[in-house]
Design goal:
Oligomer: single chain
Number of domains: 1
Strand order of the largest sheet: 1-10-6-4
Shape: globular
Strand content: 15-25%
Helix content: 40-55%
Largest sheet: 4 strands, mixed
Radius of gyration: 19 Å
Order of helices and strands: EHEEEHHHEHEHHEHHEHEHEHHH
Length: 267
């Protein structure tokens, strides 16, 4: 797994669009998905693992969370299968093994720079080549992608071949990760160009899995604290703000609160 220190905005843009040219199509079509974090020491740890605090209890707690979410959310949610239920649950803050990703590097950079109180530490932009990670998939899952001419799953595609989390873990003798586009439940999902990662095991950190199994398909772009203000200002000028990513009054208020806050002397 390659870790690249970023020195300038120009270098950052070169890195996120590196190797995006598709000669067969004659177009720039990146095979990367992105996730931004304000602190480069944060690994790819799911909310489920943070809740359980031990790998041994993650899968056990997961069953209770899913069962009770389905039970109490039924009056408001009419999900059609396990993976749609998981996507809805994660979207509303239930701890799951899912992690948020985006097809847009600029949107991922927003989440690495949305909180000025973190500008005293280096951030990180994770870049994962999903075509490389797909090499780990069991043949049944790879065949489903190939038959649909896709590099990522939809929940419907996944439902047709995997009917439970236990089944997912039993499909291969090694661990793997699936990238899934959720249903367009609301404008947030659409505007954020969102997708989720799902690991075959609830007990495995995604950064450890990727570093072990597909190190050539993963890059960490380290965003120095001193560059965060420039990144943030250029994202704002490009319209990558809370007002766009979280449509509605809450997003508008969050954007105004951040945009008009004075710059701290310490950053």
């Amino acid at each position: 797994m390659l870790s690249i220190p970023i020195r300038s905005w120009v270098q950052l843009m070169e890195e996120v669009y590196r190797d995006s040219w598709d000669a067969e199509l004659g177009r720039h079509r990146s095979t990367l998905v992105f996730r931004g974090a304000p602190d480069c020491t944060q690994g790819l740890v799911s909310s489920l693992m943070r809740l359980s605090r031990s790998t041994e209890s993650a899968a056990r707690i997961e069953r209770h969370l899913i069962r009770n979410f389905q039970k109490y959310a039924w009056s408001e949610v009419r999900a059609s299968g396990l993976w749609e239920w998981l996507a809805v649950a994660a979207h509303h803050g239930v701890p799951t093994r899912l992690l948020d990703w985006t097809f847009s590097p600029l949107i991922a950079l927003h989440f690495a720079t949305q909180d000025p109180s973190t500008y005293d530490r280096d951030g990180v932009l994770w870049c994962v080549n999903h075509r490389e990670s797909n090499r780990l998939l069991p043949s049944k899952l790879r065949s489903q992608l190939e038959s649909n001419g896709s590099d990522v799953f939809t929940v419907q595609m996944l439902d047709s071949v995997v009917d439970s989390l236990e089944h997912l873990g039993e499909m291969s003798d090694h661990e793997f990760v699936i990238f899934v586009e959720p249903p367009s439940m609301d404008a947030r999902i659409v505007n954020q160009f969102a997708l989720f990662s799902i690991t075959s095991s609830a007990e495995r950190r995604l950064d450890e899995l990727l570093a072990t199994e597909v190190p050539s398909g993963v890059r960490q772009l380290i965003l120095p604290a001193g560059l965060k203000w420039e990144i943030r200002d250029k994202l704002d000028q490009a319209g990558i703000t809370e007002r766009m990513l979280f449509p509605g009054l809450d997003g508008l208020a969050a954007w105004l609160s951040r945009y008009y806050a004075p710059r701290s002397e310490n950053t």
